[in-house]
Each structure stands twice: as C-alpha cells, then as structure tokens.
User: What shape does this take?
Amino acid sequence: MNSFYIVLNSDDAAAVGSNSDYTTTLANTINLNDNYTYECAVINGAYQTCDPYTNKQVYFYCDLVEYSYNGGALEQIVNKTNFHQPTILEKPIVHFENQVKTWFKMSKKHFNTIRIQVKDENGTSIPAGYSSVMLEIRQIQ
Assistant: This one.
C-alpha cells in the first residue's frame, strides 16, 4: 500500500458534531505499518460560503497530522484556501481542488475516528452548512 484516499462529509451518518467541526467514525480501524512514516494531503473539498461575505481564507484542520506553525500558532492544519471567495449569491458552497498537494506528516498510525474543523483566518468556525474533504494518505519510507 503506497497511498489511499478517505472522503469525509459533514452530513454523513457517521459524522458527529457541527458542519464545521465534526468527527467521523470509520467502519474499520486503520492500522498503518509502524515501520513506516506516513503523510496526509487534502486533494479536494467543499465548504459553506460565508454569510455575510468576508473574503477570508478558509482553513481545514485534521487530528491525523502533526502540529505545524500557522501564523505563529501550533495547529493541525491540512489545507488553506488561497483564492477569491465567492459571495453566497454567486455560490452557496465553495468547491476546491488542490492542483499541488501540500503534505503533512501524520501523528497517528492507528485510528478509527477523524476530526475535521473548518475555520476562517480569524479562527471563527464556518457557518452551519455542508463541508467535505478528500484526504490522501501515503507511505513515505
């Protein structure tokens, strides 16, 4: 196994929490080989367009990755939007796809739950709505 994908949706029956902060329990526990190191990247995702419109960057956080610095704070960030945010009148849900993957070292090798948080650049949770994320997990050594 060199890599595999996990798709997480806030409206999935296995997801518990709010649409911007939810934990999904997987059908089976994932046990990665302890002899290897793994990384995680966001392939694509979606989130509710902010109302009122703010045009702030949106961050996805995931409890599978190690902490890294984001604006001087240690956080488990896996994705940051870097494009113009449409208004809610233009598009109620923003869909994105990362052409260039940013990889983050994983902190867990055995897990059956994954927590996702979606916040704007001020740390405010994105308003209630739909969010999703597709993660790729790969072995690096």
